Amino acid sequence: GSNVPLVSGSGDAVCVLEDQWPSPPRRRAPVAPNEEQLRREPWYHSRMSRRDAEKLLIRDGDFLVRESTTNPGQYVLTGMHCGLPKHLLLVDPEGVVSSY
After folding, report:
1. Which GO terms of the cellular component aspect does the record hold (predicted)?
2. Which residues pair with 14 in a beta bridge?
């Protein structure tokens, strides 16, 4: 259980009870890579336009991650699917669109 004590009692007698409910599992928030770490990845291209990104994709399954030129600080997954380029904005679980 958690380490939060529950206090109960009446009058002068006070009794501290241990909370018996199980604690929920703790989830670690993923750590966002910084720009330097991203630059080491072969699939990462820093600030790049949609058009320039599309020129680099040849076959289905080709992909890259780029920083948006229209919205700096936002990252986009650009990939080739069924012969067409697709652009997906990368958003963290909190709904925040950024590199951190």
Report:
1. plasma membrane
2. 9
| Opening angle at CA 29, ends 24 and 31, nearest 5 | 160
Q: Is the pLDDT of residue 56 over 70?
A: yes
Query: Cβ contacts of residue 57 below 8 Å, gap of 6+?
Result: 63, 64, 78, 79, 80, 85
Looking at the whole model, is its pTM more than 0.85?
A: no
61 found inside a domain: yes
| Residue 37 resides in a domain | yes
20 pLDDT tier (thresholds 50, 70, 90): low
**What single-letter DSSP state applies at residue 98?**
S
Q: Is residue 15 part of a domain?
A: no
State how far Cα 25 lies from the chain centre.
19
